[in-house]
Amino acid sequence: MAELTPKQSKFVDEYLLDLNATQAAVRAGYSAKSANELGAQLLRKPQVKAAIDAARAARSAETKIDAAWVLKRLAAEAEADVADIYTEGGAVKPVHQWPKIWRQGLVAGIKHQELRDGEGNRTGEFIVDVKISDRIRRLELIGKHIGVNAFQEQVNHTGLDALGDRLERALKRVK
Q1: Is the same domain home to 45 and 97?
Q2: H or E segment at 133?
Q3: pLDDT of 120-173, one tens digit each?
Q4: What burial letters (b/e) apply to 131-169, b meaning 16+ CB within 10 Å?
């Protein structure tokens, strides 16, 4: 297989940052005017594709993050029980008492209120509102990963054109 040119090598490095071929081509030094087309062409080159695949595999091995890890994480997040962050009395627990899964991305925002004494000195704080991140999106990602057809962006139907042709021929025979 052919070696990468320095520009192609730079493209591979840049592509791995955001997986945007057009922007990677521009950052690698290709013309901004033709970056969209060039980025797509570069992704089709066997040596560039192989370099991207090898770099992804190396990164996955280094971080120990692969498709199985992502799926396990999504499943854990989808199954996390919101009751774990509340006391039996219904108050929100302090964040340091939350299970780790809740502290690592299930919460999109927290509003808290400070407690002050009569002289305005801060005496503590408590959480008054917890905004939970999009759990439906997690389920959608899991569904796409395992091939649940309900989550497909586009469903392809085959055979309908042939059926239409057959119906048209049948109508001609009847006339």
Answers
A1: no
A2: none
A3: 787 776 667 788 887 777 777 777 767 655 555 555 555 556 666 777 777 777
A4: eeeeeeebbebbeeeeeeeeeeeeeeeeeeeeeeeeeee
